[in-house]
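If your schedule permits, I should be very grateful for your opinion on a structural question. The matter concerns a single protein, recorded as an amino acid sequence and a row of backbone structure tokens. Could you please explain, in whatever detail you think fit, how the structure tokens follow from the sequence? I set the record out below, with my sincere thanks for your time.

——
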Amino acid sequence: MAPAKKKHASSQPCVIPGGFTVLPLQFNSDSAAQHKVYVKEHRVRAEKSSHRPLDRTLFVLNIPPYCSQAVVRDLFSQFGSVQSVELGDHPGSFQESGPKLSKFFKPAERKGFKVGYVVFYNSSSLSAAKSHPHNVPLVVCTEQRAVKTGVQKWIQQYTDSFIQPDKLQQIVNSFMEDYDKRKEEEAEQQRKEAEQQQEDEEGWVKVTRGAKGAKARPHSEAANKRTLQKEMRKKKRKELMNFYTWQHKNTQKEHIAELRKKFEEDKQRIALLRAQRKFRPY
């Protein structure tokens, strides 16, 4: 009875401190060595993006370098349909804020172990991945999914580094079309904002808040021109008002005299109020 009990216990998932479940990886069916990856349900309160649902996203640590994004997708597809896979050097947001670039225009990726986010279509697939027994390894390289290593991998990378001129031209044209479209939309938005600006007599400008997450846009040429003209008018009035030095001195003297006059009036008013506040019983 004891061996049967031990066998039953070995089929259970292995959970380590921190809530991570250990999943063994085996490169092929003939390999004796195993690699361990650690999975956990992705639960981050500060996560606001919709591409990582909290109830369907699996956080994966210690992904080996020979596991590409396609390989990780195939490995976890046995637990259910995979919606998306993200791989990176460290936890965080891997989404590109700018336009999506082709792999030929991106810097070379760092070689090493990765972290990843696997998004399933169903939440039950996430539970199945977490309850996978630790004595049943996931095989990376199979007949249906061949993973190249060593010299074969280097030859494949060298071959993929070349691209046909026609294909490269299509990628560049597609990127420039998207770029021109974004610039036209930004110019139209700036034109609408310039029309909505309202200036009062003192030169204040009404500023409206843009959409959340939108980058600050530079002022339009018309707005910059109006601001420059307003500053020139202010500077001209100031120069004419105090053109001579003696005019500036007289202005300061008149201002000081006015302050002294107000000060004396305030002293008399305070003295009168104090006199009226005195208590006279008879």
Remarks:
- Residues 14-95+104-161 form a domain with the Alpha-Beta Plaits fold (CATH 3.30.70.330).
- The two ends are 113 Å apart (CA to CA).
